[in-house]
Amino acid sequence: MSSRLNDLLDEYGFLDADDRYRLLIELGRELESMPEALKTDTTMVRGCSASVWVYPTRGADGRLHFLADSNAAITKGIIALVLLTVQDRAPAEILATDIEGALAPFDLTRQLSSNRTQGIPNMIALIRETATRYA
Fold first, then answer.
1. Is 11 a catalytic residue?
2. Which CATH topology does 3-134 take?
């Protein structure tokens, strides 16, 4: 698990429900800006209650960097949290990462409504499919 993810988890554990929402919203605000032109049907994650877009780029070193956005603040924070588990890693590393396991301590399904969390498996599947294509 990345040190940023560990630090977030430590902070998250001390927060009440409202502050956890604020933390996720802040995490979403920290996401790198995604150009509107990349928000297409092709980059949209299916099965999310809000619109979510994920666009992969590949560095010269072969590592994958994902741009992401959502039209809902909490959902944007969730995709930002998911990306913390895989950002700027090699495709093989991403495929070897237990993304669900890394996110489990955040207990998002208990903290958030099912509408907000229903798209998480689809976000993860899209990231894995991308890593598979580049592996």
1. no
2. Sufe protein. Chain: A (3.90.1010)
Say whether pLDDT at 48 is over 70: yes
pTM of whole model > 0.85?
yes
The pLDDT, as a whole number, for residue 80 is 97
Q: How do the domains of the chain map onto residue ranges? A: 3-134
Q: CA–CA separation, 42 vs 36, rounded Å?
A: 13
Q: Which two tokens stand for residue 45?
A: 């994650």
Give the tens place of pLDDT for each residue, 82-106.
999 999 999 999 999 999 999 999 9
Helix (H) / strand (E) element for 67: namely strand 64-70
User: Could you give the angle at the alpha carbon of 74 between the alpha carbons of 14 and 5, nearest 5°?
Assistant: 50
Out of 48, 79, 94, 127, which one is annotated catalytic?
48
